[in-house]
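Help! Submission page says 'invalid entity' but I think these are all valid:
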Amino acid sequence: MSKIEVRKLYKIFGPEPGKALEKLKAGMSKEDLLQKMGHTVGVCDVSFSVEQGEIFVVMGLSGSGKSTLVRCLNRLIEPTAGEVLIDGEVITGLSPEQLRLFRQKKMSMVFQRFALFPHRTILQNVAYGLEIQGMAKQEREERALDVLATVGLKEWGSVYPDQLSGGMQQRVGLARALAVDPDILLMDEPFSALDPLIRKEMQEELSELQSNMQKTIVFITHDLDEALKLGDRIAIMKDGQIVQLGTPEEILTNPCTEYVANFVNGVDRSRVLKAENIMIRPSALVKETDGPRLALRKMKEEELSSIFVVGEGRTLRGIVTVDRAVEAVNKKEKDLRNIIDEDIPLTSPDVTLLDLIPMAITAKVPIAVVNENRKLLGIIVRVSVLSGLIAKGDENNNVSYSD
Amino acid sequence: MYRIPISDWADFIVLFLRTNFRPVFRWFSGYIEGFVINFEALLMFIPVVLFIILVAALAWKLSGRGLALFTIAGLLLMLSMGLWEQTMRTLALVLTSTFISLLIGIPLGVLASRSELAWNLLRPVLDFMQTMPIFVYLLPAVMFFSIGIVPAVIATIVFAAPPAIRLTNLGIRQVPKEVMEAALAFGSTPMQILTKVQLPLALPSIMAGVNQCIMLSLSMVVISAMIGAGGLGGVVYRAITRLEIGSGFEGGVGVVIIAIILDRITQSLGRKPAGREQG
């Protein structure tokens, strides 16, 4: 069962949303709906599910409906139609009292402009969620202090929000949301109001926190870099609809519409693409027990100047060059053991392209991608590092830009 | 042209209320009179020196040394002019009117902030209360409550309550939307939102309403005296009718002194960052 499931969700703003919805479903365009009936479509036929422990990023430009969507999840905005299920429970059908309990325990929210309570100290802000649940003062303040410590603001409990910098205020916002120990965090552009450097710092901290706590996070942003950095999966929204949903790699390598492609074009690909995305299958391999003649023949067939040597279970032994193989044939060696060059460039699959560049510049042979057991997963030739930097999509896939 | 008989209607309504609701007015009147008289008695029971020290200390704590010194000097002046009793009487009248105005005004302000309908209904009523010439409702007030302190309190409330309602409504509506969303997102009940978020954040605005309420009440003291409320207003009113410019000035200075002390004290209450002293 998915943690969050959204089924055919609609939100229409205007005097008669029900009527407008019928027209929309009957095929009336959003422009007509706005001009002829005065209704704005905030969210239009959105369905997706989020798994436990996942960071699900919703990305779009302002006005794309992403903030409306996230508010439909905890019903700060009442959806016009459709269902939201959390742990299989239909949230959209809860009574006001049930909804309050649900908001208290299951889900909390972090806001773009922090939305701290200016008349409360930092500690009282963090303890707010516990306070309204009726927890005793001492207990809730102890808990709040613990949570403040995890965001690095243990010393700041007694000051007021306006005495803190933006970055610190948002840490408080995060701590306030975490204090009630919710299953789900809704984050509405939490870092957008921060300076770029602070934003980066906060993104890293969130990643680190998340690796310890494994919350389910719905994260709203308009920043693709941020989406790619944090998201396990990304939904791209435009005009209230999800135009593409996938992992960061899928979105980058295969942008399905021009809208997404335009987004993706602005990204520094070197930070996003990883070794595993650009590595290729080696066209030929030899075993260490093979003879030098076989190695020579394989190199000749594939027009290679060197060939990787593997042992049992494809564990990488090293590389053999043409010159050494010819030498070995002349010396009448039985196998390749004596001529293997073990000093070769290695990398793991999750290293980014950016970090591969220096290695690619100095390497005389292809870079081998291996896992922690030295199993050969693939190789990276220098030209693929370059093409990874400039390619706009997967050339093997003839992408049709339909939008 | 047909004349719409508004005048007849007004006469009829006043007559109708007088004949049918007399017990209600009596009962209400008794409460207010009792309140004011007891309050007056309390103020006069406090020894003069102790009273001056208490008010000066309050002024010092909330505003500063300047106001404290002014309070001592001002109240001693009232004492030396022989207007102490009248001052206490006026204070009782003004504070009672303010208290009742707030008792009605703040809940109405809260209601207005929560419901567009309530606010739309209330707005013309407030306009009416604030702009209708005072003498127009002074006379019916006397008819309902007879001469004395009670109609004075009622007339003062009609005149002074609107800013309390308006500023409470405004203060609550000015609470940032995201802060409200945060309170809602944590599952607060409407009551929790009101007491833990809206009212504390609206406090500066509400205090401005309290301040306005007091000032308007003070501006009514002479008119109150015309229907027998006494106090400093009575001093001024009597002086006017006898053309005694000097003693009228004395009474007027007394009103100004009270006004300055109350204004500065309530203003500094509003300036305090909302709710911080509650820790």
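Support: the input was valid. A stray whitespace character was the problem, and the output above is from the cleaned input. The first helix of chain B runs from residue 6 to 20.
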